[in-house]
Specification:
Nucleoside Triphosphate Pyrophosphohydrolase, 27% strand, alpha+beta, globular
Length: 169
């Protein structure tokens, strides 16, 4: 990995984004994009989810359909809202930005029809593989953790006891 990280990224422009937790098959594996190792992007050389910046007047859902078509040639028939993270860039003269995560499910057979048009690689990982050793965009790693382990470890007050053991892959 070239040293673009922690200071050599170049000029970055935060923006609202819509991204996908692409679930492949029925065993909760995630399709990830290896971000290009170049200046001018957040987290170069890291594994991240697919998606991108929301254009003015565009809904997050429309953005995600456009981005997945551009980046993978994937036509998304359905998606489900998962979560959103808010980032405050006020310290640098920017405002608040939101990264909206959707769950998109595809069958394993659909992988053969995908064409990577952005990034340097794509690969399917289990949550355990992603969260224990890969260079993953930190907020994407947290979203994957929430998606995979969150229902087992995050419990409303006065509910059933916490099931703290991480799901086996």
């Amino acid at each position: 990995m070239t040293e673009f990280f922690l200071g050599g990224e170049g000029c970055l422009q935060p923006a609202d984004a819509a991204v996908a937790l692409i679930i492949v098959g029925h065993d909760r594996h995630y399709l990830m994009q290896l971000r290009d190792d170049k200046p001018g992007i957040f987290y170069p050389g890291h594994w991240g989810v697919f998606g991108g910046a929301i254009d003015q007047g565009e809904s997050p859902e429309r953005t995600l359909r456009r981005e997945l078509s551009e980046e993978l040639g994937l036509m998304v028939p359905s998606m489900q809202y998962f979560t959103a993270f808010s980032f405050d860039f006020g310290f640098s003269g920017f405002g608040h930005f939101t990264r909206t995560y959707f769950e998109v499910r595809i069958e394993t057979a659909a992988m053969s029809g995908l064409v990577l048009a952005e990034g340097s690689d794509m690969r399917v990982f289990s949550a355990r593989e992603l969260l224990s050793g890969q260079h993953v965009v930190p907020f994407d790693a947290f979203a994957i953790w929430l998606h995979s382990a969150g229902p087992k470890v995050l419990q409303p007050p006065l509910s059933r006891p916490c099931q703290s053991q991480f799901a086996r892959d």
